[in-house]
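User: Please write out a complete single-protein record containing the residue sequence and its fold in token form, without commentary.

AI:
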Amino acid sequence: MGDGADGEIFLIENEPDKVIKLSVLFDPSSSKNFFTIGSALHRIMIERPSAYVRVFSYDYLGTYHRDCLDGKQEFILYYYIMEKLEKITEDERKVFHSIMCHEDRGIKKDFSLDELQKILAGLSRGLDFSAEKVTLFYNNVREAPVAHLDLHVRNIMKDATGSFKLIDLDRLQMENKNGKE
């Protein structure tokens, strides 16, 4: 159904509202390990923050290796099952690119609600989108107990009600009320 840098998405037979992402984690001894990813997936599954796709289950599949020119490369396979979402429109992509996305360069866009409202008012002159749903999503992302570290339009989709959700849960960081953990 789709793929990314960390894995591939597949439909689940007889489960039309769910998909499975099979993910690979290279260099599992790094700071980005399955324990960190699993903790974030568990938190999303239990707390169900509005900004994130609903996660139904996840699990570790095993540690493996492959032969490379430099020797053996270790990797971990894991999966998570989540709700099936729909793509956002081209106009919505433009809005989120303008207000949230880091353009794969690590730029953090952190507008106040007043600044956001001004930007959305300007964008609404030429683009078709729900400023109310965009604002709600923006607030939900800011209030989420987990920070998405790969924020760009490719990782924003919408559910059956038209609410925006973050996907690609392989690059998350736990947060607490005082900031990052």
Q: What stands out?
A: Confidence is low (pLDDT under 50) at residues 177-181. The CA atoms of residues 89 and 129 lie 9 Å apart. The first strand starts at residue 2 and ends at 3.
